[in-house]
Amino acid sequence: MNGNNSNIFQMAAPCLLGLEGLAAGELRRMDAQHVTAENGRVFFEGDGSMLARANLNCRYAERIGIVMGRFEAVSFDELFEKTKALPWERWISKSDAFPVKGSSLNSRLHSVPDCQKIIKKAIVERLKAKYALNWFEETGALHRIQFLLMKDQVLLMIDTSGAGLHKRGYRPNGAVAPIKETLAAAMADIAFVRRDSHVIDPCCGSGTILIESAMKALNVAPGLRRSFAAEQWRQVSPDVWRSERERAKELINRDAQFSACGYDIDENVIELARRNAYQAGMSRRITFEKRDIADFTPDGERGVVVCNPPYGERLLTQEEARAIYQTMGKRFERRDGWSYAIITPEEEFEHFFGRKCDKQRKLYNGMLQCRLYLFFK
Asked: Which domain holds residue 125?
């Protein structure tokens, strides 16, 4: 690309299962082209500005990758030749680092270490021919190659993000069993958090759900406080990154009337949540108190309760978790202007909560299948 930002190329945004629709929607709102969602990822097209914009603004994607190729491979020879045929020199210069990592699911080429070696060798051979070199120092900018083999179909990407996009930069140390930032952002969206919402998390832990709710309400780009691998690349000008950061800052809803409060029974966890909110620039919008969920009452004319209560597989025994669900059912009263969104893997949650939800959504907290139960009527 030689620093030219006008070239259009395909990118992919891997995401947690269940978040594909949200990720696709936000990319369309960013003016990404040809957006298509598949299981666990969204494909789209754009130029260098879109690459920077997606990294800075995606709330639900785990990372942004440049799609180098998609093809079938049932032998290592086929994997080698099809990988070698791709234009790696377009992105990787003579001195750049290009480690290879990936996974294989339900494929004949099931050995991940062997696939890594074959893909690495194929790229090296391609670059040797293009640059007339026999040795690559790999001391320059990082271009991590990622591969996924699924049912013999190969996806090859170059990662542009570096650290996963869920690492916003405000939570260096989470509390015990924290929820992923991308999932917390999705919960806020599904729970209809808006710029004037009052959000409560009565078991807030490290404050992630409240911070993500505040960032969404104020339209603060989640990547504003961090850096990305592609910022070191020659193909996308530093001016592009500066321009996209300025664009993101201009879109912040500084006059939003959003407020939030979080409760937890552990004073140390509350202090951690306060620090995280401060690091995120949201400490003026969110207050935290030491309080038991049994003391919760829906005070005020309106409120959106969003929470990730402890459950048997995480912090408590199953019996203790179910006792909390029963308490929640009693304290989370039906009231005009109030809604509740609760994520849990407990299949009998509605039974212990004491009433049927108005809507539910299947989501994954890591590899754990959960449901987000919504009560708003």
From this structure: 9-159
